[in-house]
Amino acid sequence: MPTLGVNIDHVATIRQARRTVEPDPVAAAVLAELAGADGITVHLREDRRHIQDRDVRLLRQTVRTHLNLEMAATDEMVAIALDIKPDYVTLVPERREEVTTEGGLDIAGQVDRMTLVVDKLQSAGIPVSLFIDADEAQIAASAKVKAKFVELHTGKYAEAHDEASRQKELEVLEKGCEMALASGLRVNAGHGLTYWNVYPVAAIKGMEELNIGHTIISRAVLVGLERAVREMKEAILGHWSS
Ligand SMILES: CC(=O)[C@@H](O)[C@H](O)COP(=O)(O)O
Ligand SMILES: NCC(=O)COP(=O)(O)O
């Protein structure tokens, strides 16, 4: 079965709603690791809407499993990665106006640029994963640019409205995984996976790591709310004052 990379971006989303210091994604990473996370994933977006540079720098020092830095393939981000040296980098497409990552990277359409970026990072000892749709041309191009991994975008599978379309998207992922492995790539997957839809993807043969964030942070808010309210009642009674 694949390992679990916990994406903690949306802990930072809550913090950035007030531009304050809580909740701290660095603390969240420690708790995720204590609970069994096999890796920590953060997406340093160009607009810094959630994760900040400070978070990535501190996480580099505190993460005990492995740190996966998701980022756009821009010169600014490459410089940051070369400086911070995460355990691996996942290159993702970014559009500033998007609510979340909408599709996979077009590697086939920018082989020269991607070859350059992948080589720059991997020559510095940072393995590169490419976040792509499970599409034949994109998988072939990912092997061509010599990335070590691909991360198959599971968004279409996760958003399928009925069982037949979900099954069809699952087959696309299975075929993509098989093809990527046959091309010498290691295979991760993620985006939009939930407690209810993860198992069929986890069961795909050869799948190495699943990166999952939004559903875990959403659940954490709900399963933690009762205790948080109880503790505020205690604080009002002075139990938290020194
Ligand atoms: C690349 C990807 O699928 C996730 O990292 C996702 O982008 C999380 O960040 P956002 O929710 O800001 O899109
Ligand atoms: N690359 C996918 C990821 O890190 C988490 O995506 P999501 O579970 O927040 O949709």
TrEMBL record:
Binding residues for 1-deoxy-D-xylulose 5-phosphate: 9-10, 45, 50, 100
Function comment: Catalyzes the complicated ring closure reaction between the two acyclic compounds 1-deoxy-D-xylulose-5-phosphate (DXP) and 3-amino-2-oxopropyl phosphate (1-amino-acetone-3-phosphate or AAP) to form pyridoxine 5'-phosphate (PNP) and inorganic phosphate.
Main location (coarse class): cytoplasm
Active site: 43 (proton acceptor), 70 (proton acceptor), 191 (proton donor)
Family: Belongs to the PNP synthase family.
Ribonucleoprotein listed as a keyword: no
Keyword Cell membrane in record: no
Protein known as: Pyridoxine 5'-phosphate synthase
Cellular compartments annotated: Cytoplasm
Gene Ontology MF: a single term: pyridoxine 5'-phosphate synthase activity
Complex formation: Homooctamer; tetramer of dimers.
Sites annotated Transition state stabilizer: 151
Record pathway: Cofactor biosynthesis; pyridoxine 5'-phosphate biosynthesis; pyridoxine 5'-phosphate from D-erythrose 4-phosphate: step 5/5
